[in-house]
Design brief:
249 residues, alpha+beta, 4 helices, globular, binds 2-amino-4-trifluoromethylsulfanyl-butyric acid, binds cobalt (II) ion
Length: 249
């Protein structure tokens, strides 16, 4: 239940973990094209994680089978790479990945438009990404956790989008999920005080339609109940005395 405060040496280790994770994401990006399978992307991820001497954080987590979560269109999070899932023009693909280096975790996600997507989905991606950036700007000592949550919720709901309630961001460090939970909704000015040395994975999961989600019988894939498309962006962010330090940029 306690929020771990990281030392400068620990944040330095997490910075290295985050920098490697960004290289992995960057290596995958050119393969996000029509005709690629999500298993093709998984292979690129596994290769690059190994090349940097890192460990895939998701593989084996509660039995999860892969290094990546690849969630397409109405899939919100935790879609599993599959050789039969072929990307096509107009798809919206969230890629979520985590690394462990020297015992320290990093976690980041990005949602791509595959070729040209509809106007509403283009807006979904830009508003969701902007909400993450607004939330990062709240990562100052003395603020409250609710400032982060509200910074995500406000612009997304103002745009008419649904903020997912069932999944939340989290503290991160020597475990992938530490306290506190970081909801993408809730009032500003409430919740725990933000302190230098906290490290948070902030991850808006936003639906073009209603907020409700359900999990498919595979036990992992979360989809929107109304079939609308969903976007997910995530950064691992350290709170320093000078403000936010994005470790996965
Ligand atoms: N980024 C997600 C999270 O923060 C991914 C972990 S789910 C896993 O919880 F099971 F695939 F590992
Ligand atoms: Co996460």
């Amino acid at each position: 239940m306690a929020i771990h405060i990281k030392s400068a040496a620990e944040i330095e280790k997490m910075r290295i973990s985050g920098a490697i994770l960004r290289k992995v994401h960057n290596a995958i990006a050119p393969y996000v094209v029509p005709g690629a399978s999500t298993m093709d992307l998984e292979r690129v991820a596994v290769e690059h994680i190994a090349k940097h001497g890192a460990i895939a954080a998701f593989k084996g987590y509660h039995g999860y089978p892969s290094a990546l979560c690849t969630s397409i269109n109405n899939e919100v999070v935790h879609g599993m790479p599959n050789a039969k899932r072929i990307l096509k023009e107009g798809d919206v693909l969230s890629i979520d990945c985590g690394c462990i280096i020297d015992g320290y975790y990093s976690d980041a996600a990005v949602t791509y438009a595959v070729g040209k997507v509809s106007a509403i989905n283009e807006r979904l991606l830009s508003v969701t990404q902007a909400s993450l950036e607004a939330a990062i700007q709240q990562c100052h000592p003395g603020g409250r956790l609710g400032d982060i949550s509200f910074a995500v919720q406000q612009p997304c709901e103002a745009a008419g989008f649904g903020v997912v309630r069932e999944f939340v961001g989290h503290g991160i460090g020597r475990a992938m999920h530490e306290d506190p939970q970081v909801p993408n909704f809730g009032p500003a000015g409430k919740g725990p005080r933000l302190k230098a040395g906290m490290v948070l994975a902030i991850e808006p999961m936003i639906n073009a339609g209603k907020p409700e989600v359900r999990v498919l019988p595979d036990g992992w894939t979360a989809v929107t109940v109304d079939g609308s498309y969903s976007a997910h962006f995530e950064h691992t962010v350290a709170i320093t005395k000078d403000g936010p330090l994005v470790l996965t940029r």
